[in-house]
Design goal:
198 residues, alpha+beta, 3-stranded antiparallel sheet, SU10_adaptor, 4 helices, 2 domains
C-alpha cells in the first residue's frame, strides 16, 4: 500500500532532490496535504458511514466524521431493501432528517464525501490519482522555492526562475486535471436536499 513516504519519494524525484538536501520531509508533507485538500474537492473520497440515531430525535451529530466535506445521501433505517433514502438538511455539524419515521435509536447510513489522507500506514487515494497529487504538491513546493521562502535554501536568480517556470507548468497541469475530475460529477439524487456544505 502506498504511504506518505512513497509519495514524498516521488516528489523528490520530480524536484531533483533525491537526497533531501533542499526540502525537509515536513515541508514536502505540507505541500502534499495542500494538494490532497484541493484534489479532494474535485474527486473526494466516498464512503458510507453508519451512525446510531437518538431515540425521538431527527438530528445526527456529524462532528465525529473526520475529514467530512459533505453528505450526498442518507438512509434511515440503514440496510433496508430497497434502501430507505430520506430527505435531509445539513447545517454545520448536524444532519436533520426532514421526513420519514421518527428515529428510534437504530442506525442511519450516510453516503459521504471525505478529504483524502496520506500517512505512514497508507493513502486513501486510488492509484490513478496518486500522480495527480504528486503533480500538485511539487508545483506548490517549486513555487515556494521560487519565492525564496524555502528554509536553508539560497537561490540565485537563474535557479529561482527555473523553479518559477516549473511551478507554473505543474500548477497549470494540476488545475486542468482538477477541472476534468470535477466535471465528471458526483452521486446525486433528486430526493435529497443538503445545506451547509459546499
Amino acid at each position: 500500500m502506498t504511504t506518505i513516504a512513497d509519495l514524498r519519494a516521488r516528489m523528490r524525484i520530480d524536484l531533483q532532490d533525491p537526497g533531501g538536501d533542499r526540502w525537509s520531509d515536513a515541508a514536502l508533507d505540507r505541500h502534499l496535504r495542500h494538494a490532497l485538500a484541493e484534489l479532494s474537492r474535485a474527486a473526494p473520497r466516498q464512503e458510507r458511514v453508519t451512525l446510531a440515531t437518538s431515540p425521538g430525535s431527527r438530528e445526527l451529530d456529524l462532528s465525529g466524521i473526520a475529514g467530512l466535506m459533505g453528505v450526498d445521501r442518507a438512509e434511515y433505517p440503514a440496510g433496508a431493501e430497497p434502501p430507505a433514502f430520506r430527505q435531509f438538511t445539513v447545517y454545520g455539524a448536524v444532519l436533520r432528517f426532514d421526513e420519514g419515521p421518527l428515529p428510534d435509536g437504530s442506525d442511519a447510513r450516510l453516503w459521504c464525501r471525505l478529504v483524502h489522507e496520506a500517512d505512514g500506514s497508507g493513502c486513501t487515494l486510488p492509484a490513478a490519482l496518486e500522480d495527480v497529487a504528486v503533480l500538485g504538491a511539487t508545483a506548490f513546493a517549486a513555487a515556494e522555492a521560487a519565492s525564496g521562502t524555502l528554509e536553508q535554501l539560497t537561490l540565485n536568480p537563474g535557479t529561482a526562475a527555473g523553479y518559477a517556470a516549473l511551478a507554473r507548468e505543474r500548477e497549470t497541469a494540476f488545475r486542468q486535471l482538477l477541472r476534468e475530475l470535477g466535471g465528471r460529477g458526483r452521486l446525486r439524487t433528486g430526493r435529497v436536499r443538503s445545506a451547509g456544505f459546499s
